[in-house]
Structures are given as structure tokens and as C-alpha cells.
Amino acid sequence: MASFFDRVLITGSGGMLGNAVYPHFAANYPSVLATDINQYNKRRRAPWLREEMDVTNRKQVREVMAGYKPDLVLHLAALVDMEICEEDPELSELLNVTATQIVAEEAERVGATVVYISTGGVFDGGKPNPPDNYYTEEDPVDSICVYGKTKHGGELHVRNICSKCYVVRPGWMTGGGYALDRKFVGMILDQIERGEKVIYGVDDKWGTPTYTYAFAKNLDVLVKTGQYGTYHMVCKEPGTRFDIAKGIVEVCGRTDIELQRVKSDFFQARFSAPRPPNEILVNQALEDLGINQMPTWREAFEEYIPRHFPHLMRK
Predict the structure, then answer these.
(1) Cβ proximity of 244 and 201 under 8 Å
(2) How many of the other CB atoms lie within 10 Å of CB of 132?
């Protein structure tokens, strides 16, 4: 049975995903409250932020929830930097596990449906022979990194506490435009902008990108179904980091750039956190509901790059 929400509260809405989720939900729901922490707001304040809410502060979360009375909570707030998570596991536990418990408990107190954004990093990546092997929502979880372990801890709290919840796992996130895209795609685009003539791409790590703007639209469709559970929400078709870099360069029309394949240890000094060799997700649960609207990552790049990085395009 379809459900409809009058008041939507978003945590951590100042980041890359919030940049896509807030505009979409604000355009399609009567009232949307965008929240984030004050320190983040001062550093890079998104124009849609309306309320300070530190998800580690139960008193503040309770006051905001009780005052606004959301019927849908989109919990985006998290520590997503994998290197910081490894260096400071206590901070990762606080922001990804404890904070999620607080949000889940206070959302349940006001009767809200909760959407928790998790990660494909909850899997150990040990399935051999990608891209032929991949992960569905039914596969057992066993992360090899602090980030994945703590995000799974958040999943457990949401499932155990919330009577109405969706756990949604994206893949390699891309979106946010020039100011907010600091993930892999943004790094490649930065190299193109700096005039790099050689770009290196890892070819021993497989995954599936998630385009934030398509994610926001498909998330909207999902929450209206009332079919609570765990869902993967990634672009169709897998690839290696090298494949993704190659696709970006091709969409930009940059025949002047050389692409070189490397192994993960090439970037070990910069990206020291363990990363699963196989993070390929498929949207089986969305397919079962007939609502998998995610594009291929190539289609996503063909929309995203010309719109947000037109100065990097060559005809």
C-alpha cells in the first residue's frame, strides 16, 4: 500500500547526497526540514540548511524531532571517510553507530518511518571472479574495514529499533557537482581540470557507482511503497576504477589524456584503509518490486558531467 508523508526530516543534509536528496524531496513533499551540524554549516553551508542538529546529541535530536514531528526521517549523516574511520575507530563508532541509535530511537518515539543510508562496504568483497559474482541483499555481511563494520552496526540499530524502516545501500557515490564531489569521480575530474595528461586507474577493485540524483528519485519511489526492508540502490552495470576513469575521460571527449592501469598498492600511501576487491551490488529487491529506475553509470555520467562540469567538455 502506498504511503505519503507530510513532514520529512533529513540529517546530514549538507553533503554530497543531501545536495540531491533535499531538492528532490523539497519539490515533491509539503514540508522538508534540512539539518546538519553547526561546524559543517560554517565550513560550507548549503543554502537549504534550516536547522542545526548534531546527531550525537540526544537532547538536541529529541527537541528537533518533538518540535517538527516528522513522519519520514532520511538519515544521511555519517562519517564516510574510510581513512579517518581506520585512524579513529571510536569516532567512527560514535558517528555511524551511536548516532544512528539515537536517531532511530527518537524517530520511533514520534512514530516516523526511517530511511538509513548504509554502504556496499558492509560486505567483505571476497566473492571471486567479478563481474560474474556480485552481492544481493540476501548475502551475509562481513566487512573488512572500520567504515563498513560501523555502518553495519547502524543497520542493526535501525532494524532492531524502528517498526517502519528502509536500509538502503548505495555503491561508489558520485554527485554534488564542483563543490561537493570529493569521491573517486570528483578526483578524476579534478585531475582533468588540472591538466593532467596521464591518469591512473586501479583495475583490481570492482564496484557499482551510485548517481546521487538518480538515487534521490528512486528513493522517493521506494518510500512510497511501504515495503520496508533492505535495498541496494546502485547504477546498472559494474566496473573497475579504471573502467570508471575511462568512462569519465570518454564522456569529456578528452583524447589527449592517457589512461594507465595500476594495482591498488599504487595508491596505498594515500588510501590506506582496506577496501573490498569486489563491491558489485545488484538491485535485486528493487527489481522484485518492479521499481528499479537506476541508470547505467555511463548514462549517469553523460548527464552529470556536462551539467556540472561543462568547462571540462571537448566536442
Answers:
(1) yes
(2) 9
Give the residue carrying C-alpha cell 595500476.
Answer: 262
Would you tell me how many other CB atoms lie within 10 Å of the CB of residue 23? 15
Q: Which one-letter DSSP state was computed for residue 6?
A: S
Q: What is the pTM of this model?
A: 0.93
- Measured at the CA of 114, the angle between CA 110 and CA 115, to 5 degrees, comes to 160
As assigned by CATH, the class of the 7-173+209-232 domain is alpha beta
Q: What is the 3-state secondary structure (H, E, C) of 171-231?
A: CEEECCHHHHCCCHHHHHHHHHHCCCCEEEEECCCEECEEEHHHHHHHHHHHHCCCCCEEE
Q: What is the DSSP letter of 311?
A: G
The list of the chain residues with pLDDT below 50 reads: 1-2, 40-43
Hey, which CATH number is domain 178-207+237-279+296-312, 3.30.70.1450, 3.10.105.10, 3.30.250.10, 3.90.25.10?
3.90.25.10
